[in-house]
Amino acid sequence: MKKILLVCILTLSCLCMACSNSENELLEDKNTTGTDDITSATSENTPVKEETTTEEQQTGYPDGEVQWKYVMYNDILYTHDYAVRRHIDESEVFSKFEGYEKIGTVNIDNLNMPDEELDASRFEEGATLYAKSGHDSEVYVYSVDTLYRMIPYKD
């Protein structure tokens, strides 16, 4: 009977500690995603207000930089369709995507939105654009073993 009681007490203690830690983690997550007021206690238990700020958006990229993957092609701004990306070797692109042509290497600029032909953001250097003639509803960007489907950006 003592063993059962001891196991129950230990289990309840662990659950209480887990709940307490989860609440603290949620509070910490909330405070790291933006500007929030935090009240901290000094040694005299007098509340002191502090303001926290972060240099990154929720995307993980620094403020003031482009936050998403974009590419400009044929005067159309494309954005990444986050539902579609494939990890393949670049040599497989032509066999899996019939009619697509290698257009060229994109110019990466993470500080400005793409506004000229083959400008792009948030890809690795050396990323390549693939497109199908007369098919403006999607293009693909190959970057570091991953093929990204890009669709026209809509405000």
What brief labels describe this structure?
155 residues; alpha+beta; 2 domains; eight-stranded mixed sheet; two-stranded antiparallel ribbon; 2 helices; 10 strands; 39% strand
3D structure, described in words:
It is a single chain. The chain is of the alpha+beta class and 155 residues long. Helix content is 23%, strand content 39%. It is built from two helices and ten strands; from the N terminus they run H-E-E-E-E-H-E-E-E-E-E-E. It has helices spanning 2-32, 93-96, and strands spanning 36-41, 47-52, 70-73, 76-87, 100-105, 107-108, 119-121, 128-132, 135-143, 146-152. The strands form two sheets. Strands 5-8-9-10-4-3-7-6 form an eight-stranded mixed sheet, with no helix packed on it. It is elongated. Residues 21-44 and 46-54 have low confidence and may be disordered.
